[in-house]
Every structure is written in structure tokens, then in C-alpha cells.
Sigma-54 dependent transcriptional regulator
Amino acid sequence: MLEAFKSNRPEVKVIIITGYSDIKTAVEIIKRGAFDYISKPLIPDEVMAVIRKALESASPIAATPPAPGEIPSLQKKKEAADPASGFLVGESPAIREVYRRVKLVAPTDYSVILYGESGTGKEVMARTIHQYSRRQDKPFVALDCGTLSRELAGSELFGHIKGAFTGAFADRTGHFEMANGGTLFLDEVANLSYDIQASLLRVIQERCFRRIGGTREMQLDIRLIIASNENLETAYRQGKFREDLFHRFNEFSLTLPPLRERQTDIPLFVHHFLEQTNAELGKNIQGFEEEVMNIFMQYSWPGNIREMKNVIRRAVLMSASDRITRKCLPWEQLTRQDKSVAAAPRSEGTRIPAPVVLQHDNNLKEAAWRAEWETILSVLKQVKYNKSKAAQLLNIDRKTLYNKLRNLESQGLTPN
């Protein structure tokens, strides 16, 4: 069923629920394209954590060419695709240099740290490294550490046995075990608690581990790729990350350039996501008005490739003609067209002009919405739209921040 489903809808995240929890089944499920699997009996918190990971994870940018002649940049797009991984690479010198280094380090077993802003494609790059490695026919397993609670982190990483703690009604295979022999990608590793970091260090040093509550030592043959949107060396100097763990990880590092530094790649990705969304929605949008392309080229793309994909998907959905017009774009692009203005430093105490108006008569409740919206937007701008950092500054958790953003946008907020 999984293979049949993935062949028809490869972009959809599939989660398998099973009553049979063993390493062979887990590895086979992941190899055949499942995002994750959950063992029965179901624990609501565990189910929600896996669903959140699936929703928040970036979809790989697969290069699926359209029929010839549909898009003027088709030949350029073919030349910009990576033949080994199938991902769209781009033409900019910055990303070409990154891929040159990828091809150097991929055949080794070095641990790799990937730095880059949110949405720059760190998981895509990790998969590319795996595809170029000697482990390419082994499992590639990804785990977003930013979504893990302190209580669930150990179980997700190392697994647990039945009865190890309250709610452990069955054995569970951890991500280390699922990835054994292949590659384990840990995204936002700096979010792991200090005690979990200590356990992680021991596993990396000794190349063996035990499930939580278990006594049997399991040997480990794994390649680690780590991702972070903050510098881990700075983090350990500030006491937020273990120095010994940083040095274990830091055998090789790569920094992925943000989209605003890849101007020549913007048209390629724009047309690529247009093709994908046309296929997804059964539409036939032919292209973009010149004004829209100018906005795209001038925009700073704080959310990088992930943001661009969402913008294009929304625009295609909103479009009532065969071309994307200005009316189809979200308000944040229309209010921040000039990237030089968006990136300019603000003097201390400068108040950001309100970018939105409410569609209802003013009252106290709406004034509270406006104040909260402006505060969140101000903090997001300060941290370049890194939602984890914004949540820390606002003294709320990241899940709460996401909920507030959804709720505020549902209140009828529209661009000026």
C-alpha cells in the first residue's frame, strides 16, 4: 500500500501505524518512503509529535521536468539539476561552491554540520550528501530536534522498551536504530537539552547504545549530519551547547547561502514551484506578470526556499487567470518589496509602522490583536524570521507562536 501510494502522490508524508515493532520492519518502512512509523497502542502525545514533524519538515525539491516548451527556462533548469540526487541545485556561484565541497566530503564518513537560515534546504543538502556517499543504498533517517520535548527526546533518539516509563506500552525503535548502517540527520540539534546532549556524546564516542529501560548494547555504524541555524561554536561558548559534543560533530561544516544571495536562482525556483503546484492543483498557470517577477527579485525572502514554495502555492491557488498577478501575492511581500529597506538596521526605539489594518470597527479586542501582531512582527524582523529565536524572545514556546500567527491571520488582517 505504501509503495502504491508513494508512486501516485510522492510529495505526501506517510505515517505507518503498526502493531509489530521491530528494527527490520522500521528500516524497511523508511527505505520504502514512509516519513515515520508509530507502534500500537497509540500514545496521543507521541502521535501529535510525529504529525507536527511531518507538517513542519521541508519537502525535498525534486527536479521533475515538465513537457518541453511549457516554460522558457526548461533547458536552464535541466542544467541546474543535480544528476545524482535529482534535486534542483541552481546556477549561482555560492551554491555551486557548496556542491563542490559536498562531493569532496560525501564519500567519507565525516560528521557534517550544516549551517543556514530556516528554509535554505538543509535537509535537502543532507539527502544529497547521503546520495553521494557509500551508504546511498542504506537508510536515510531525519529527525527535527526542534519539535522534541525533553520527555520524548530520549525515546525518539534511542527507542525504549515496554514498561520503561509511564505510557511505554510497547517497545519502540529509535532513530539511531532505524538509521543503523546509513545516515542520521539531526535538524536543529542545538535545541536538545543538556542531559540528552550528554547521552548523545556517549553514543557517538562508544558507537553503541541501549534503548531506554533496556540492558542490551547495540552496535552502531552510522554517519551523522547535523543542522543548525545558529553557530554551534558560539552556542557552546555561551554555555548553551556542550563543547565536547561540538568537537565530535565538527569534522566538516558547510554554510548554505540564503536565497537573497542567490539572485540568479530565483527565476529557476519560481518556475519550478509553479510547475509543481500546477500539477498538484490541476491548473495550467502559464507564468508571472513582469511586476510580480520584479517583486520576487527585490524581496529579501527571509523564509528562503521554503517561503518561496508557499508563496507560489498560494498564488497559484488564488489566481483566476492564466498568469500570476500582484493581487495573488501575500501582504508581507507587498509591504516589503525593497529588500534594501527591509534589511536596513533600525535605530534603538524606532517603531515599525503597522503593516496591516483590521477589517472591522475598532474595539478593545481588536486593539489587543493589533498590538500583539505588531509585537510578534517586530521580534520576527529582529531575528530574521527565525521562529525558534522569536519564541524565546517573546517568552513563549514555538508551538504557541505558530498558533498565535495562525489565529492573528484568521482575524481578517489584510495589507494596507
